[in-house]
Amino acid sequence: YLAAHPVYHSRSKHIEIDLHFVREKLAKGDLKIQYISSKDQ
Question: Full-prediction pTM beyond 0.85?
Answer without folding.
Answer: no
